[in-house]
Amino acid sequence: MKVLVSTPIFPPEIGGPATYTVEVSRRLQERGHKIRIVAFTDEKPQISNLEVISVRIQYKMLGTLLRQIRLFLKLLSAVEDMDLIYLQDPMVVGVASLLVGKLVRKPLVLKFVGDPVWEKEHNHRRTNQNLDDFLGSAQKSLALRLRTYLLRFVLGNMNRVIVPSYYLRDILVTHYRVKSDKIAVVYNSVDLKAIGRATGGRRQYHGKQVIAIGRMVRHKRIEGVIAALSEFVDKFPDATLVLVGDGPERENLKKLTGEMGVIQRVRFYGSIGHDKTLALLKASDVFVLNSIYEGLPHTVIEAMACSVPVVATDIRGTDEAIDNGRTGLLIPPDNEQALANGIARLFQNRKLAEQLAEKALAAVREKFTWGSNLVKLEAELEKVL
What we know:
Elements: E1 2-7, H1 16-30, E2 34-40, E3 51-55, H2 63-78, E4 84-87, H3 94-104, E5 108-111, H4 116-123, H5 131-136, H6 142-156, E6 160-163, H7 166-175, E7 183-185, H8 192-197, E8 209-213, H9 222-232, E9 240-244, H10 250-259, E10 266-270, H11 274-282, E11 286-289, H12 298-305, E12 310-313, E13 329-331, H13 336-348, H14 350-367, H15 370-383
Parallel strand pairs: 1-2, 1-4, 2-3, 4-5, 5-6, 6-7, 8-9, 8-11, 9-10, 11-12, 12-13
Helix pairs in contact: 2-3, 9-13
């Protein structure tokens, strides 16, 4: 196959979608497929052995319009000798990719990892509803209805939609009227060999380390992790929280550490490379995900693969990665006391932490490796030809 990949995010930017794009492209290429990537990035891609065509992000004026025009033209010139287009986002690169695909009559496959309409509304504080309630609500502005219709239009014109969880499949069928036989569930995967080669980071202190990794946006509820730290810091005076990632909530979170008296116990690392992230993860005692929404959290799977015990919120998507009490601990969302108790439980009971980590690694080997999931993805891409 000859696959043109279009993506809204690419290294050196961090995050699951950026990591996934590189990994899946490399692995498909190793299996003999021709891969070409068109990516939004202002920096020269630092990835070797992959053909990457960059589309500039920053403009002084008319940024959105110019970005989409340049994306369309880059895709149009790149698609000529390709068999299909594999989109990594339904909105940022979705419309331009759809137009190009229809114009040159190439099949379109979309990887859908989350609802961009709800995420934008929630992160800009225009709604406090969770995803399911938001999609089920009839009270939406005209602009919001138009964006929802555009997303539905893009989804409806795909030849195939790949989702990383059964939860997201249900969302598409129920709320976006996508036919179930057009959707395939292919779990996210990690490279256990690469994780095994990664060296645990040297700590700058002695004590217990909690780590949270991800974009600093509202639905990740990182403020709850900081609040949980303040709950048990007296009981565990050597505890420290490491935060990896960046986003619009970063300054608010820094301010919160001062208000809660834990400013000396929280370290903000910002956006760092994947290898450095893995090193910090391996050096940690507990990984925390306090999110109220996840499609399928890649960071949880990586923590499991690193044999770091996980405490995460009991929400759909995450519950497909974690079996509560066997491969990790699931706690109610928006409950800082429960989060603090879960972390403290693992601090106090190292035998439990080790048992959870051992079974979590076994679960990763069974469900979340490229060995099985790449073959499934390859078969789904071939179906549209």
